[in-house]
Amino acid sequence: MEFTQESKTQLAKLMATENVTVEHRKVQTASFNLATRILTLPIWKDMSGDMYDLLTGHEVGHALETPEEGWHNALTGTGKFNKNYKNFLNVVEDARIEKKIKRKYPGIRQSFIRGYQSLLDRDFFGIKTRDVNKLSFIDRLNIYTKSGGTLY
Predict the structure, then answer these.
(1) What is the C-alpha separation between 9 and 56, in angstroms, rounded?
(2) C-alpha triplet 20, 75, 89: angle, nearest 5°
(3) Exposed, middle or buried: residue 56 (CB in 10 Å: 0-12, 13-18, 19+)?
(4) Taking CA 126 as the corner, what is the angle to CA 124 and CA 129, rounded to the nearest 5 degrees?
(5) Three-class SS string for 49-113?
(6) In the predicted structure, residue 1 carries a pLDDT above the cut 60
(7) Nearest to 89 by CA among 125, 144, 138, 143
(8) CB atoms within 10 A of CB 12
(9) Exposure string (b/e) for 119-149, b if CB count within 10 Å is 16 or more?
(10) What is the pLDDT of residues 44-85, one digit of tens each?
(11) pTM of the entire structure?
(12) Above 90 in pLDDT, residue 2?
């Protein structure tokens, strides 16, 4: 099935239920800025529709579910939060928002499965030559939630 960047932009806006700004750029990964409401999607070689939908769904999950207030301080280590918790907070938040977006839009579940499989095949997480069981707990949890438990 063919797709365009414009169709993926419209999908993001519809899923977010707001007029978020969507930018397609040559960046390493997708992101969502909670303050400016800018969703950035990467332009990668051989990017499938499932990968776009996965990344769009993930970032829209942040748009809908991640609170702006307090999140920046938690991730930068300012305020009452210690910066050592950044990885832990990111992994748990990603798992939480992905579960919620898949409940809200059940049709995107298969795109998440196929999209994450494509990312694993590309070694996006840098684990192809590593023993996953020797990674830190939080890294294993991240891979487990992203792979749908298929690596264990």
Answers:
(1) 9
(2) 95
(3) buried
(4) 130
(5) HHHHHHHHHHHHHHHHHCCCCCHHHHHHCCCCCCHHHHHHHHHHHHHHHHHHHHHHCHHHHHHHH
(6) no
(7) 138
(8) 24
(9) bbeeebbebeeeeeeeeeeebbbbbbbbbee
(10) 988 899 999 999 999 999 999 998 876 555 555 555 556 557
(11) 0.86
(12) no
Contacts of residue 1, Cβ cutoff 8 Å, sequence gap at least 6: 49
Contact 32, 63 (CB under 8 A): yes
Sheet holding 38-42, edge to edge: 21-25, 38-42, 31-33
CA–CA separation, 53 and 115 (whole Å): 8
The C-alpha angle 150, 151, 152, rounded to 5 degrees, equals 95
Q: What is the DSSP letter of 3?
A: -
Residues 6+ apart with CB under 8 A from 29: 42, 55
Token couple for 44:
């990668």
Compute the distance between CA of residue 149 and CA of residue 141 in angstroms, rounded to an integer.
Answer: 9
pLDDT of residue 77: 56
Over residues 76-106, the pLDDT tens digits come to: 555 555 655 778 888 999 999 999 999 999 9
